[in-house]
Amino acid sequence: MGGKSTYIRAAGVNVLLAQVGSFVPCDSAEISVTDSILARVGAGDCQSRGVSTFMAEMLETATILKGATERSLVLIDELGRGTSTYDGFGLAWAIAEHLATRVGCCSLFTTHFHELTALAAKHPCIVNRHVSALVGDGQMTMLYEVADGPCDKAFGVHVAEVARFPPTVVASAKRKLEQLEDANLAAREEGVPPTAAEAERKRPALSAEERAAGLAEVRSFLDEFGALPLGTMAVAEAAVAVRAVVGKLRAKGEAGGANPLVASLVRAA
User: Fold this and answer.
1) Do the domain assignments include residue 203?
2) Bridge-partner residues for 110, per DSSP?
3) Number of folded domains in the chain?
4) Are residues 214 and 102 in the same domain?
5) What Rg do the C-alpha atoms of the chain give, in angstroms?
6) 229 shares its domain with 149
7) Which residues of 58-80 are buried (b: 16+ CB within 10 A; e: fewer)?
8) Which of 211, 212, 242 is nearest to 224 (CA)?
9) What pLDDT sits at residue 81?
10) Does the pLDDT at position 198 exceed 60?
11) Domain boundary residue, one of 153, 173, 200
């Protein structure tokens, strides 16, 4: 929903286009020659062979680990979802670390295991990125931007609300989430040190006023952008109009005394 899978698939397609001598949809790019593009994306089983979704995922990943070289491009999307949380996290950690330290290939690895971001502190060759989202007043807006650092929170409950889950189910999920967060906070207060991922995700909190003002400015930007009649404009005219609208938000974010939320979005862009 946030665009992670689309992002890594687009990277694979662009590398393939460049290698066959085709045009690549960008202003400029430096793309290395690869000996293979190895992808573990999507989910599916094979009932006729008795292969579960998780087994299919493991078989494909095993092929990648055996065949990848330092000249390969590896794309892995949400590995480890078909088993327990700890099993899935352990497998994802080991596979990501193996690709980074043993194979040394260029890899794009998407995950919902926040703890996996701690690998960046252990191995300098690993870099964390996240897709941005704006949450406020019970609404969630996906910004479809790839920003530096790990994501500071998950949006599963918000997605459930967007999908129109029954309110009782959403309320129950929120209560359970709060219980788990309270348990984690209690562990911190007892002196249990935060994980590297938690420390990296920790960011200065916004006041309610700052958050409300920032959300208002971003919604104003989204409304103005959405009102552009891009479908009836010439390409050059549309580009000028988009740059003008984006420029207004960028000017607000870069100005002295800018709203912290707007400033952070502008920096991420």
Assistant:
1) no
2) 77
3) 2
4) no
5) 21
6) no
7) bebbeebeeebeeebbbbbbbbb
8) 242
9) 76
10) no
11) 153
Half-sphere exposure of 48 (CA within 13 A, CB side): 0
Which residues in 207-228 are b (16+ Cβ under 10 Å) and which e? eeeebebbbebbeebeeeeeee
Amino acid at position 167, single letter = P
Question: Domain limits at 222?
Answer: 208-268
Same domain assignment for residues 138 and 13: yes
Q: How far apart are alpha carbons 175 and 184 in whole angstroms?
A: 14
Residues 6+ apart with CB under 8 A from 233: 241
Alpha carbon distance 64, 39 (integer Å): 8
Residues in the chain, overall count: 269
Residue 8 lies in a domain: yes
For residue 220, being part of any structural domain is answered with yes
Flag whether 10 is in a domain. yes
pLDDT, tens only, 49-76: 666 778 888 888 999 999 999 999 999 9
- Tokens (6 digits) for 187: 């562990």
Is the pLDDT assigned to residue 45 strictly greater than 90? no
Amino acid making up residue 33: V
Express each pLDDT in 25-36 by its tens digit: 988 889 999 999
Residues 15 and 145 in one domain: yes
pLDDT at 13 over 60: yes
My answer on whether 18 and 137 are in the same domain is: yes
